[in-house]
């Protein structure tokens, strides 16, 4: 958030006034694509500086991956506080219009005059929804819960998560039994459910665009020697984050998926696919800190648990070094790249094989659970901006996008933590405002 950087929205205006010789300026609208922390920051700051902002998000809620976190590092505070501040700023600001379940189909034009086509998918739930939950109580169909990375299920009509914004239900038509069921329709006393909703397309005219679509976790099934997808008790770091959350699939209890037992021994495997020319050649920078943070989750629940972290080297730079120093003596740090993870078929225990680089010993560590620290992949590696944008070799948007008036923000440009993403989004908002000044 801008208030964390020391630059307020009023400061934006002063900078831009100076930029234009002290004259009060009018702006064309700005489009922000992506409703995670970067998109939210860019939207609220640009709007509070005086611009009309359109915010487009493909999911049914705003908040992005921050909404899926249990705690921030290094303060170990919950993310809902920061998100709620941004949501309140959106609700109180008539200059922001946001569209969920929406995607960008095309971008035409140039800086100062873009025409953007947006397609909105049907929610099948209208503005009358009060989030009372009666529809869910009677719904007989279930679906895999992607918010919890498939570790539990929701009903076909559901609220994305406990703090979802907007606080409205959404219907998964692929899981729904259709009109022949209709139980949710009959029980809703507000007439909020419309099973015949259709997709809609509309156009927006804007002066500039901030592309803040974030990142995806690297697909751990591609790292076959770690057994993710075959061994039940091999999880990824994002999955453990949800498991540790009170509104997660286990109510905050860190347990083995195979039998629900409390975890007493756990191994964090760093650089799972990262810094590897066969997978991700780069370091995501935040994975070490995320694993150290998650080690505190385990130790809080089971103070006598044995926590091991296998690493190439630990990245905990600047202000994060104090956090590293506080945690390192509470866990076993082993310098070595894990070569293979196998499973005891009878007990479902996992055997982690690694060469300890400091002693030369070949270790075979038996643990209850393994957590793979997978890296951050930019969303643009798989879904490109529908415009002439320049990317680097890993699919991140280049700092100079090659298209005046379109600016990347946050982890779609490079791997970033939450605070750094917000700062980068602040800079992108300022550039977008400069692009939209009506001369």
Automatic annotation (TrEMBL):
InterPro entries: 4Fe4S_Fe-S-bd, 4Fe4S_Fe_S_CS, FAD/NAD-bd_sf, HdrA-like. It comes from the Bacteria. Its EC number is 1.18.1.2. Keywords: 4Fe-4S, FAD, Flavoprotein, Iron, Iron-sulfur, Metal-binding, Oxidoreductase. Residues 120-150, 167-198 form the 4Fe-4S ferredoxin-type domain. One of its GO terms (molecular function) is 4 iron, 4 sulfur cluster binding. The keyword Iron applies. PROSITE patterns: 4FE4S_FER_1, 4FE4S_FER_2. Signal peptide: none annotated. The keyword Oxidoreductase applies. Transmembrane segments: none annotated. Its cofactor is FAD. Pfam families: FAD_oxidored, Fer4_9. Belongs to the HdrA family. PANTHER family: COB--COM HETERODISULFIDE REDUCTASE IRON-SULFUR SUBUNIT A, FERREDOXIN:COB-COM HETERODISULFIDE REDUCTASE SUBUNIT A. This is Ferredoxin--NADP reductase. It comes from Desulfosporosinus acididurans.
